[in-house]
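In response to reviewer comment 3 from the previous cycle, which asked for concrete evidence that the modeling workflow produces usable outputs, we include below a single protein chain processed end to end. The sequence was submitted unchanged, and the resulting structure tokens are shown without manual editing.
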Amino acid sequence: MPTSRSEAIFARAQTVLPSGYTRHLAVTKPHPQYAVAGDGCWITDVDGNRKIDFLNNFASIIHGHAHPVITRLIADQAARLLCTVLPTEWEVKLAELLVDRIPSVEQVRFMNTGTEAVMLAVKVARAATGRSKVAKMEGGYHGQYDLIEASFQPPPALWGDAARPTPVAHSVGTPQSLLDELVLLPVNHLEHTRARLRAEAANLAAVIIDPYRLQLGLVAPSHEYLAMLREETARLGIVLIFDEVFCLRVGYHGMQGLLGITPDLTTMGKIIGGGMPIGAVGGSTSLMSVFDVDAGEPKVKQSGTFTANPLSTATGYTGMTLLTPEVFDQLAARGQRLRDGMTRVLRDLGLTGRAEGVGSFSGLLLTDRPTRNYRELAAVMADGLGDRMQAFQKHLLAEGVLTMRGGFIGSTPMTDDDIDFTIEAVRRALVKLHA
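The workflow returned the following structure tokens.
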């Protein structure tokens, strides 16, 4: 007999969902805990357990759960218009806001997910350059597009030469002909990357990179490396795409604003929907002209049943207007408070590790070995870090903290008391881990 409501629901789920899940990243043994309600930065499961939410639906909910301004807006908009083939002013208002804030963005095109944004950005680059190949970082994550998801977590036996990594399919059935269109770059290896870009330039339409972190937060491209990418792609006529679906939340002008490096195209999603599904591609008027219909057939055709629907764009505009520079400063201050607290805990307990991050992103990595690229990270993970991080995550969940892989994603409802609660939970979880 089930001992909890979550266990009972999971038993039902296993008969109608493969292995009982829709999201692989939600897999938890022996079963997941099913959510029923959220309030601010706290979430409650069907068994009445409350947890502070540091996942925030993988960084998409920056205002936490049930923000009163956003919930009122959703109710009002749903009562008036959910979706229609006709455009609404909401998409114009959200586009204007993004153009005003993000340095690379002069025009915007909307879709429904970050994955779709990446797919469309690749189409734009190919149409603008007349080239077909796309480059990404070995170990980089950019959603579920089969071309770009390749070599997200490739096994060591298939890596190939470090200077010219071999593209490895992420899902069974990906055709080799598609993999032949992918160029893999070794992040933070400037000379290897520069040489590969020059060698492939005649066929290379775009380079895509998350300018904050690869591997969902564990490998950081250096400023020097990103600056080199900007210089080389501009010189070679290659479109540089910053994937800011994840990291746009680091500041008022996104990650590119903090870096002072402006790409050609930016993919966006998550926070720009205010908690509703959305994706967007933004870039210069010249690049975005591939969508123009004034001169006849556009070079790139794009639509979608729920694209730029008024509920997502209204919620997104409302959520983004709440994110003033002062609010970003508060998010950054609480992020720093958390990182300082976790560093203090490691020191107090005499444990190896480091707390790092920027803005509302924080991470606790339980190793002192460098992780400057995917291969270094994979080696450390295989040497026990992966098991330690998984166990740490389970101990944190038992302490009332919902997170993943040592990553902590903040939200605006969090207070100093919430951060201090989390620091002490980290302390208790680490004591249990090393008991």
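The CA atoms of residues 146 and 396 lie 33 Å apart. We consider this sufficient to address the reviewer's concern, and the full set will be provided in the supplementary archive.
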